[in-house]
Amino acid sequence: MALLIALSLLTVIIAGIAIFLANRLLIAPLLQIAGQLKHIEEFHLDRVARVVSPLRELDELSGVLFQMSRSLTSFQKYMPTELVRTLVSQGVEPRPGGHQDLLTVMFTDVAGFTGLSEALGERVVPVLADYLEVVCGAVRSNRGTIDKFIGDGVMAFWGAPLPSARHAVDACATALECQRLLGLQRAEAERRGGTPLRVRVGINTGRMLVGNIGSNERLNYTVVGDAVNVASRLEALGEIYGVGIVIGGETRTAAGDAIIARRLDRVAVRGRTKGLAIYELLGMADDPGADIPGWVETYESGLAAFEDRRWREAMGLFEAAAGFRGGLDRPSEILIQRCRACVADPPPEDRLWTSAQE
Q1: Residue 82 falls within a domain, yes or no?
Q2: Dihedral sign, CA of 93, 96, 101, 107?
Q3: What is the pTM for the complete model shown?
């Protein structure tokens, strides 16, 4: 009887040791390796660590996974990681496809970049990198999706892949943050004898196709459509009107009271029979001390008079608006010249707006 009890105890002890060793040498490392695989799946590559195991097979498996994460980290710089992580979590399959949605898209561009790159040569690379870092950081902090770099420009959009009712507001906040941060960079560059950059931004809201656009071999999660093309043209209008941020009428409506803006003009856009209302974004309504400047009402009153064909009255209002701004307001100058042209040669009743290439 005593021998039977001893054998039973010995069996229990051996089983306990076996379970302990199995847990220590096999189960625990396997669970850790499974965790590393989960990090890789979610593109949290910085969380992947080497799991050391006395079992050669597990040790080699962990080593391979760790090396895979390091290789993916190298390629991570070439892809929008947050976007990929979101698409994976939503179960979006990597194949061509998309759907129509109401979104907001933004384009940025460095003023005079061609001449700047010719003057600086290879030294333009760090200057461009600093600018892109500012823009990308502002997009990410305001829940946007970075689409692509187009030379010295950035294309980003809001409202996908994660839906947002604030897509227009967030895009406007991003543009203003970019201009604020780049203004600080300019001041620092001028103080140190560096290269100050000025950036133009165009923002538009509308229905556009969003999804995986491309071929079976290469895809780009992006937005396409007329509203996207208009945003690109709005960015170019910033150079004509001498303003930093131009937004479309749909963005102005979607953002509502959250932003402060002035109606700049109505321009002709290719493919549209009616003029497109454009606005200059001035600020966010919830910024400390934010208020609509008095000259904005004067300028917009001038626009109303101009559209009512009261050109001499409009001219006086535009001159007053420019005067409030120290005589330096390019949009007022443009409208004053147009008023003079209309007085000399009145245009047709249905054609008061200007060409976008003026």
Answers
A1: no
A2: positive
A3: 0.82
